[in-house]
Amino acid sequence: MSSAAAENGFVILLLVLSGTRSQTIWTVFYPSSNICASEGSTVEISCNYSYPHLQRGLSVVDRLWFISEEDKVPVDLRTLSQFAGRVEYFCHSNKCSLIIRKLRESDSNVYKFRFITNMETGKYTGEPGVSLRVTGLKVKEYNTKKYICESQCNLADPISYIWYKNEEKVERSPTKYYSGNVRYSDLISCAVKGHEDFPSPLKCEFTPSGSCFQSV
């Protein structure tokens, strides 16, 4: 056998072994390990998983996402009352996504995916999971008599904002900036259009000096 043929055969053998190994390990891969989302929005947390396909008769019988355990057993999110009507799974082949709608700040947590096979010991949890941070909006003064509706997350553009003064909608340009006439004791808040049920929890009262502080 020539040296070239031997080298080609060696390369092919390595590829075969590499492909075989990828089918004999247990893994869960999360494309994003940290996600930030605004309160009231919808988030998708996804993963890809693999297991020993070459093992005869081995198949996946259940898939779930969880944030807590009971007696060391993961608790399926779909069974938790705080997620009722807000959670869905979309799983196909070796991919599985978790959808959470109408996000709340209390949803901030670490989410993990687990799959279970028809083998007694064939259960696997993807560590360390995905960290989800849910934040609300807040109004901040960025210039004299000019204010901005801020989120600690980088919200995808384009987004339309709604401003409220004394809890009444202000008919102005739907941007994150507000520079309308504000008098002493006026209360200002903002929301993202489409998520009006989740206005900024921080309502600001403006003093004659133009300073802003949380109202009570």
Automatic annotation (TrEMBL):
InterPro entries: Ig-like_dom_sf, Ig-like_fold, Ig_sub. Gene3D superfamilies: Immunoglobulins. Coiled coil: none annotated. Keywords: Signal. Residues 1-22 form the signal peptide. The keyword Nucleotide-binding does not apply. The keyword Transport does not apply. It comes from the Eukaryota. Residues 32-135 form the Immunoglobulin domain. This is Immunoglobulin domain-containing protein. It comes from Takifugu rubripes.
